[in-house]
Amino acid sequence: MLGKTISHYKILEKLGEGGMGVIYKAEDTRLKRPVALKFLLPELTRDSEAKERFINEARAASGLDHPNICTIHEIGETGEGQMFIVMALCEGESLKTKIRRGQLPLEEAIDITTQVAAGLAKAHSKGIVHRDIKPANVMVTSDGEVKLVDFGLATLAGQARLTKMGALSGTAAYMSPEQARGEEIDHRTDIWSLGVVFYEMVTGQLPFRGEYETAVVYSILNDRPRPISSLRGGLSRGLERVIEKALAKSQEKRYQTIADMLADLQSLGGRPAGAMVQREAAEARQRRKSVAVLPFRSLSESKEDEYFSDGTTEDIITQLSKIGELRVISRTSVMRYKQTEKSIPEIGRELDVATILEGSVRRAGERVRIVAQLVDAQEDEHIWAETYDRDMKDIFAIQSDVAEKIAAALKAKLSPQEKERIEKEATINMEAYNYYLKGREYYYRYKNQDNETAITLFKKALELDPDYAIAWAGLGDAYAQRFARYGMAISWLDSAVDVSKKAIGLDGNCAEAHKALGLAYFHKGLTGEALEAFHRAIELNPNYHPAVGNIAVIYLSMGEFDKAILWLKKEIQFAPTLPFGHAVIGWVYRILGDFAKAEESLKSALELQPDYDYALYLLFTLYLVQDRKQEMKEFHDRVATSRPENARFLEYWGMCEGFSGDLPQAKDHYQRSIEVNSSFDTDSFAFAGIGLAHILLKEGKTGEAEQLLDQARKLREKRIEDKDVSEEPRCDLARIHAILGNRKEALAWLDKAIEAGWRDYQMALLDPWLENLRDNEQFREAMARVKTKVDEMRKRVEETEQDQQST
Q1: What's the whole-model pTM score?
Q2: What domains are defined for the chain?
Q3: Is 696 in a helix, a strand, or coil?
Q4: Tens digits of per-residue pLDDT, 752-797?
């Protein structure tokens, strides 16, 4: 081969050969640069499928641009059909050669491992797995820079292993257990192999050895490697843990991403990686500062004391949530694990947290015993544990101490303000505290009568301690829900504002009070005031997911979908098992026209809660705008068999029936919604009244219909007079006037709705309440204008998502 020219590459000298072929130094005669040509053994690519797979993998690998990856320039084929690959010439020596001389200096071993991990992080981010990490595929240049070679060749290496059993035992020594078993592999197989290489550099020995390949495979599957401390002195426990974790035989107990491993390597002194990898490593370190508090078990003899253990769980979550450096899973997400049989690692994976706090509570008279233990969710090992045997009056001090001890264990720094907020006692009256805990328990049941019981209990707490700020906040939440969820008069929102402000006056640092105020403002349509209140709640409690989710919904109502999606994704981080965030993201994607993402998100919501009325309605609207009649029918039949007597669900389903043309069914749903709601003049579910009036007009019942529409019109106009700036009352007024045939007024209100943030032109084009505007040119122009706004917002959302992936 020497002196020959293959394509435009002149062969200069032979560099070496191995089990897959021969490699030469060559000159690229076009670009006048040195390159490396690797000629593959003919038998490796004789099979057409293997050849095509190799070409595809090498082509994907050629797109990797990273300082620690040897660049692939080209794939070629000689006239005789022999495949070759053209790579950048990485001059230096292979790691295999360096290891032959014995143990590497510790700093050098860490540095090389860190650089390999950085290169793998780039590849894994592009969905590329090397699958054959070994010293022979790691080149080290004279200035210490590491280059990973042979990306795209792992499939052929596997084929060579099958055809030349026993000849490649050195390669077999780096195989992961899943590779050895012939199972499906992912990026974690590279993590295992890098762990083997790291072990070998530090100790000068392989962790799994055998005279034959089968013996090596047996060792990989069954043996524990000798501790590195027994083979080399002076090693830190941190270094041992990195290698042990990389070499966990179970994929689930191994490092889950190379960025996680890289973060630990850098803590050992590994060199800083590139910006993207540094970000991933920082994210990995931050993931470790994540915790879910499982419901504490009640060990008290009285079953009634279970509210106390649940309340203790919630209060510890609240205290932890005030620490900005921690990510804390919401109460609602963890309560579903009460009395679960799932293991700690299973729960950790489902909630995407690194640590789990579990414990128990026993109350006897004026004494309380709390046992708490923090567990590594991946390793299922204890990190910290404490038993508190105290007087009941010390309950707040216990909760604060638990929060601070967990922060210390996870190396999360507390600011002086956070420490002060954590240590502040909510009340000195334990009886008031008991009433408050019971009130919260009833509030979270989200049923009308339970909400009324919660109000009674909050009031009892306040009778005992009128300065109990968080109890005033609970009352504010419950008053707001009287209107928003249970269909009572809108004046309850004013009451909610009053008691929430009372709470803030007593304790300006009470996040729950600001959130309650924001909830009332939101339902009053005071968007700016609501945003301000929710943002203040998050400043005080960075993990407070109800405020996060509500901010997302406000931005959605304003037509700022890029901001809405960012906040919704944050909401899902804090409450991964709640359907709300997934459902609303589905709504956003549907309006943006990304129907595939919309369906995926909505189905995710329904997997979490199959009867979630909001997601059921949104999925039906998705099928509706896509004109997927078969899915609409199947979905309708599924939902209709179990119609709950819930006013909001009945209203939603009435709209679905009406929009799809089944007016008799729609009428039944609207009427039931109003009956369940007690009366239409509450203004809670105006859609039901408008929808019913539209059908009554078609039946010739003009007087009854006009009375309903006039009532709805006055209520909506009153909302606007009261400074409601949201799109909802304006959109409803457009519909009311359209049904009555008042085109000019309808179009004027529609313009105001668009200005306020209304963007759902897809449904407007199908909306039977707007049918009198269909043939109007001004209406068509308005819809085209909204579509343009949506298209612009879709580009912004795509750019935002791309930025998140690349930065």
Answers
A1: 0.66
A2: 5-88 (3.30.200.20), 96-149+163-286 (1.10.510.10), 290-425 (3.40.50.10610), 443-696 (1.25.40.10), 725-807 (no CATH)
A3: helix
A4: 999 999 999 999 999 999 999 999 999 999 999 999 999 999 999 8
